[in-house]
């Protein structure tokens, strides 16, 4: 009786070990699916990145000026084709621009202010904003342009 129970147990063990491939445990990690997912995500981000716009979509003029290095996120004033003014991404009337900037300045903001204006906008609209900034005492103001291609 002991023999038949042992024989049945042994037979069960041998069938189980045959199913697993000889009883060896697979200890390797299969990284192929992870690499496939990462490559798909890379392709998605490469296709989507050029479609992203920074804040307000503008057609900036081109220049040969070098880029200004930045340590922190800059304070940006955008002026679109219609002359609408945006502080970062929120629209703001021209009369409220200086008080908002002064409130930010009281919070310890001594960084440069970047002005991005659409190249189709007339010069007077840009100068109105620049004049308000200068009159309020903001002296670190920079105009943003795209890098000129060619020549």
Automatic annotation (TrEMBL):
Membrane topology label: Single-pass membrane protein; Single-pass type II membrane protein
Keywords for the protein's UniProt record, in alphabetical order: Cell cycle, Cell division, Cell inner membrane, Cell membrane, Membrane, Protein transport, Transmembrane, Transmembrane helix, Transport
Compartments where found: Cell membrane
Entries under InterPro entries matching the protein: ExbD (IPR003400), Tol-Pal_TolR (IPR014168)
Transmembrane regions listed in the UniProt entry: 37-58
Gene3D superfamilies per the UniProt record, alphabetical: 3.30.420.270
Principal place of residence: membrane
Family matches, as NCBIfam families: tolR (TIGR02801)
Family statement drawn from the similarity comment of this UniProt entry: Belongs to the ExbD/TolR family.
Record protein name field: Protein TolR
Organism: Ancylobacter koreensis
């Amino acid at each position: 009786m002991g023999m038949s129970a042992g024989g049945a147990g042994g037979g069960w063990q041998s069938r189980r070990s045959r199913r697993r491939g000889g009883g060896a445990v697979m200890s390797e990690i299969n990284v192929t699916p992870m690499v496939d997912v990462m490559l798909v995500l890379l392709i998605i981000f490469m296709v989507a990145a050029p479609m992203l716009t920074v804040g307000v979509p503008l057609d900036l003029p081109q220049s040969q000026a070098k880029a200004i290095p930045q340590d922190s996120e800059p304070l940006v004033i955008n002026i679109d084709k219609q002359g609408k003014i945006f502080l970062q991404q929120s629209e703001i009337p021209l009369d409220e621009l200086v008080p908002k900037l002064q409130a930010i300045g009281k919070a310890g903001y001594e960084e440069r202010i970047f002005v991005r204006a659409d190249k189709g906008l007339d010069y007077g609209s840009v100068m109105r904003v620049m004049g308000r900034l200068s009159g309020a005492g903001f002296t670190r103001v920079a105009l943003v342009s795209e890098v000129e291609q060619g020549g």
